[in-house]
Amino acid sequence: MPSTSLWHVVHQLRQTSLLVRTAVALVPVDELARGPDIAAQHGIDYVDYLMWKLERIKPEQRFIGLDRDQVLLDLESIANQDAPTGCILLANADIPLARLSPHERDAVWMFLFDSFKRRRNALILVLPRDAFHLFPMTQRGRWQQAGRVADISDNGPGGSDNDDAHW
Question: Which letter does DSSP use for residue 84 in this model?
Fold first, then answer.
């Protein structure tokens, strides 16, 4: 099943009756910086994972431990924060995923797909479209089949929406 438009994904995730409200937005690398604009255009909140994480580092802290459990705790904190729209577009989600081993990454994707239940806000992780090592085809196919992947591009799947045509 091909990816869908971001409009469709946002509409689907706003159904608060859903137990798990997570999705992925695949974006061309050269368009990643436009995240705040697309979030505003779709009426959803925007969080930059890197800025969010940096704001929580203590001055004396020398290392940021990023393992599977810490990444999931971070995503849970972000999904449960105050967000007026009930849906958060999470930029730079690729950074913590890149720090994980393939096995840990798979566990994160499975948890986010099946077990990330009843969070205050829906969560849409922004990833570079061609980052197959971070979002492998086995996982990607499963998420696409469930209608939980938006591909933001000028001429790729999901690009038929005029508002999604340029991230």
Answer: T
Question: Which tokens in the block code for residue 20?
Answer: 């798990």
What's the mean pLDDT in 66-70? 91
In a domain, 65, yes or no: no
* pTM greater than 0.85: yes
- With a CB cutoff of 8 Å and minimum separation 6, the contacts of 68 are 100, 104, 107, 108
Please choose, from the candidates 143, 125, 161, 131, the residue with its C-alpha nearest in 3D space to the C-alpha of residue 46: 125
CA atoms within 13 A on the CB side of 5: 14
Place of tokens 């469930």: 146
Q: Whose structure tokens read 């971001």? A: 6
Kindly report the CATH number assigned to the domain that includes residue 23.
Answer: 3.40.50
Give the total number of structural domains in the chain: 1
Mean pLDDT calculated for residue range 5-18? 91
One-letter amino acid of 136: P
Spatial separation of the C-alpha atoms in residues 28 and 51, rounded to whole Å: 21
